[in-house]
Amino acid sequence: MSDIHRSGCPINLTLEVVGDKWSLLIIRDMIFGNRRHYRELLGGSEEGISSNILADRLKTLLAAGIISREDDPSHKQKGIYSLTEQGIELLPILAQMAGWGYKYLPVSEELGIRAKLLMEGGPKMWAELMDELREIHLGVKRRRKAGPSVGERLQAAYQKVVAAKKAQTGKDR
Amino acid sequence: MSDIHRSGCPINLTLEVVGDKWSLLIIRDMIFGNRRHYRELLGGSEEGISSNILADRLKTLLAAGIISREDDPSHKQKGIYSLTEQGIELLPILAQMAGWGYKYLPVSEELGIRAKLLMEGGPKMWAELMDELREIHLGVKRRRKAGPSVGERLQAAYQKVVAAKKAQTGKDR
DNA sequence: CCCAACTGATCTTGTTTCGCAAGCAGTTGG
DNA sequence: CCAACTGCTTGCGAAACAAGATCAGTTGGG
Question: So what's the pLDDT on residue A84?
Answer without folding.
Answer: 96
